[in-house]
Amino acid sequence: MPVFVGILAILALALNLLPPGLLDLPGFQWAQRWSGADPRIVRWVNTEVKAVALTFDDGPDPVYTPDLLELLSARKVKATFFLIGKMVDARPDLARLLVLQGHELGNHSYNHPPMAHLSREEVDFQLQEASKIIEKATGMRPRYFRPPLNSHNDQLVSAVVSGGMTFIHWSVDSRDWESNSVDGIAGRVLTHAQPGDIILFHDHGGDRSVTIKAVEKVIDGLSARGYVFVTIGELLKIGRPASVAGPEERRLWRTRSSREQRERSTDREVWSPGGRD
Ligand SMILES: [Zn+2]
Asked: Which residues neighbour ligand 1 (ion) by CB within 5 Å?
């Protein structure tokens, strides 16, 4: 019987159907741990609007962030930057420039540790210190958090949510951190992108000129298909946030809401989890 309840709970979680109160029941807590579909984590947004959010982690970088801003400005694209507090401390002017150019800022910790390994005090320090530095530099307090190194657990998600931020993951990983191929990075995103996606890139760490060239191809390719580029805040307003992770789960999700969406999504490649973030 407990196994049956667990299986049902995993299915329900995968579909993002559970009302938050049910998560307190032991069966659902178990299922939540094993399914990885914590409904407090936003991985994509269920919408039929052809909109995606480009997100950039680990900056601001003194070399690549200004180059990236030049590209985004030329293409009139707004993005979301998940900043490392320590990096902002070194270049607060770049964080200000991001805000001045209409981009959105998120908290990506103070110095990028694997946060699932930290004590609650250390977690709170990482969250609060980064937000404090970003707010001091820009006047804006981050409303979104993305975990460094894709390292997260229930303690971290709870700390983020109780601190008033939304926990943002991603649905398409460009895997730019492990690739030097512009076409490989751009091709991966262009193959997988669909409405409501949150797309992960990096503007710091290694030679990110490769990322910038790939982003140019992604913007041009998706624009040609009729997509618009929005910030995380804008994306959250045009659809229902979902914690499901890949196309299979999305297919199940969409089956419920739209036959047309189901037909469109069945021919997509199998999504592979991972990502350094
Ligand atoms: Zn990172």
From this structure: 57-58, 148, 277
CA–CA dist 39, 51 (Å, integer)? 22
Q: Any idea which architecture 40-265 has in CATH?
A: Alpha-Beta Barrel (3.20)
The alpha-helical segments, DSSP class H, found in 139-246 are 154-162, 182-192, 209-224, 232-237
Find, among 42, 58, 62, 19, the residue nearest to 205 by Cα.
58
Higher local confidence (pLDDT), 26 or 143:
143
- C-alpha separations of 139 from 4, 73, 93, 134, 222 in Å: 50, 22, 12, 8, 33
Domain with CATH 3.20.20.370 in the chain: 40-265
Q: Phi/psi class of residue 170: alpha, beta or left (left: φ > 0; alpha: ψ in -120 to 50)?
A: beta
Say what the pTM is: 0.80
How far, in Å, is the centroid of ligand 1 from the Cα of 78? 20
- Is the Cβ–Cβ distance between 34 and 10 less than 8 Å? yes
- In one letter, which amino acid is 267? D
User: Quick check: 110 and 48 in contact, CB under 8 A?
Assistant: no
